Every structure is written in C-alpha cells, then in structure tokens.
Amino acid sequence: MSATRLVDRGVIRVSGEDARDFLQNLVTNDLDPVTPERAGYGALLTPQGKIICDFFIVALSHEDGGGFLLDVPLLQATDLMKRLKLYKLRAKVALDDLSEASAVIASTDGSPLPEDSGLVYADPRLPALGQRAITDRAGVEEIAADDTETYHARRIALGVPDGGRDFAYGDAFPHEALLDQLGGVSFKKGCYIGQEVVSRMQHRGTARTRIVPVVFTEGIVCETGAEATAGTKTLGRIGSGAKGRGLAMLRLDRVADALSEGLTLNGGGLAFVLAKPDFIHFPFPGEPDFGAAA
C-alpha cells in the first residue's frame, strides 16, 4: 500500500455559523482560501507568539454538515480543545473531539490515495508530500498500512518538520518551525493571537534559529535530541532522522561562523552537512547573501 495510518494524529470538528470567523480570529493563517477543495495549514499560538499546536484545516461541504475538521497531533488534541473552548465565549460554535472514531491517513510516496480513503485533501505544506485523508477508524486497515516509518523518512528527506519530533510545542516560534516557509502563516490577514511577535520577527529578520535539513556524512543518524556542535560551540539540537538524513533546530549565525572557520558540524558525535530544500527562501549559511539576521 502507498498509504499509512498516522496513529499519532487526532481530529477535532469546529462547526456552527461562526466557525470560519472563530478560527480566522485565532490561527496564524488566512481561512478565506480554505474550501472543501483546498485545505489549509496553520497554528494556534500563545500571546508570546509560540506554537501551542499546528494543524491542518479541512473545510466541510454543506452536504457534510459544514464547518471544519482539524487534523491535529493526537497528544495535543485535549489541550487544543480546552483552549478553543476558552476562546469560544459567545461565538455560535460547536467543538467536538472525533479522535476516537476517526483516523488520519497519508501517502507514503506522494502518489494519490485510494478513492475510498474518506475526506481526501492535498497536504498544503508541500506538493511532494502528496495527499492526506480523514476517515472512519473502523476498516481503516483495509486502505492504509501501518508504515509510519516510511512516511516520516520521506517527510525528513523533503525537509518538513514535525511537531513533537523536531520542535517542542510551547517553546518554538512559527519561523523556527518553518511555518512561514510552508504556507502556515499569513502576513496579510487581520489580527490573531501572537500576531505582533510573528510580524516583528518577519519584518525585522530576527529569526536566527531555524529547523534545517541535514545529511550525516557517514549515513548514520544520531538520536533525536542530541546536541549539535562545531568545535566547542553549541549550535542547537538534532530532531528526527532516517536513512542518513535529519532535521536540526540550529542557530544559523553560529553555523555560518563555524563554516567560515572550517569547523566540522556534528550531531551526537556524527558529522553532518546542511542540505537546503527548494522551498526554503531565507538566507542560508554558506551562501553569499547570508547575514546575522537570517
């Protein structure tokens, strides 16, 4: 099978006549382009601009009852529900955690999912990731294998971070987790929680720490959470890894200094080099236009 069930994902439904405005006022991305034919990607932030939870936003048609389904990290679903209820106030919105009855599946090789996969949507972060779907948990094993290792290996090879693996919820800014590069932040929409901090980082170019793809020169990946260093300098931490590749949360100015000094970059004692994917558009260490405010 070219599809796998992502057992670490949950589903929350947001419905009611105020559902779109409710989410629009909370999340980092613009809800206007989100339709039943086009899913969105965004996050709920703290007032200090750090990521509480990132998720996919899938619009339901009138035939399906309207509203939205949120494809969320399962471990964050309960906390996200509490926070959404906190912000609900008098909005005409209903919130339901559908995680026990639902399943999220994803393509493991970028090919289309089977036609009977449920509510199918293209991964809005990167076309190469292919399709995802929300479906009933009952019978999901007939359309999706248990092959999350292959899915994550592909994700890592494409350079796409995953919350809880490559960045810690409550501790990372959207720029650090590449939401600005992967279509998860709108810099044109109205206010949302944490917007002031995110906008300041964007316009002042103060996002010095970023998750970047790395390639281990020996083809062996170090353990998640290992310290990244160059000589005696600490650069950051290594996130998830597979098949000789990984993702690392690094201070890019320190990486640039290390490269200019001819130092080897190491993660858990294993040498690595940076690998810039096409979707990254910020200045990269080693490039002529790289500056301290990367």
Task: Give a structural overview.
This is Folate-binding protein. Keywords: Transit peptide. Pfam families: Beta-barrel_CAF17_C, GCV_T. The chain is of the alpha+beta class and 294 residues long. The protein is built from five helices and 15 strands. The strands form three sheets. Strands 10-13-12-11-14-15 form a six-stranded antiparallel barrel. A five-stranded antiparallel β-sheet has the order 3-4-5-2-6, covered by helices on one side. A four-stranded antiparallel β-sheet has the order 1-7-9-8, with no helix packed on it. A hairpin with a 2-residue loop joins β11 and β12. The longest helix has 15 residues.
Helix-strand blueprint:
Elements: E1 3-5, E2 9-15, H1 19-24, E3 40-45, E4 51-59, E5 68-73, H2 74-88, E6 94-97, E7 102-107, E8 119-122, E9 131-136, H3 148-158, H4 195-204, E10 209-216, E11 227-230, E12 233-242, E13 245-251, H5 252-260, E14 265-267, E15 270-274
